[in-house]
Amino acid sequence: MFNHLLVPLDGSEYSERALPYARDLAKTTGAKVSLLTDLLRYPPPHLPRAAELDEHSRRLAEEYLQDKVKSLQEEGVPSVEKIVTFGQPAESITDYARLHDVDLIVMSTHGVGATGKYAVGSIAMKILMTAPCQVFLVRVEEGHG
Q: HSE on the CB side for 83, CA within 13 Å?
């Protein structure tokens, strides 16, 4: 059914609420799980040391994702990888899904900027409209977790 799951994470507790669902799906189907964090890149004219900042951000993101990889592996998910990209989150997520034969994107309705009881975040909405595969949204509600 599913061979490759993509889980976008932005470092927030909201985005991480998708992890248990991805874990259970991967354990049930044997699917590979790719954890993806997308970072914004600042243009060099605005920051003289942009390359250093990018490298530092990439290292921090990889450390964050490595903790999630380790947790999923300890919980019985055999194939987990981490991916760090630079760009616009919705575009980076859908591009990765398209290029790597992702069957299902598992993500929260909100991430860092979670607000509103009924809203779907702008990134989630963009992914719903442009994803090359199915999207499993985990509803985020304040005070529930």
A: 20
d(CA 15, CA 111): 5
Domains of the chain: 4-138 (3.40.50.620)
Closest CA to 92 of 71, 107, 77: 107
The verdict on pTM exceeding 0.85 is: yes
Buried b (16+ CB within 10 A) or exposed e, 42-64: eeeeeeeeeeeebeebbeebeeb
Helix (H, G, I), strand (E, B) or coil at 28: helix
If we measure between CA atoms, which residue out of 100, 27, 35 comes closest to residue 67? 35
Q: Which of 33, 104, 97 is nearest to 70 (CA)?
A: 33
Summarize pLDDT for 2-23 with one digit per residue, the tens: 999 999 999 999 999 999 999 9
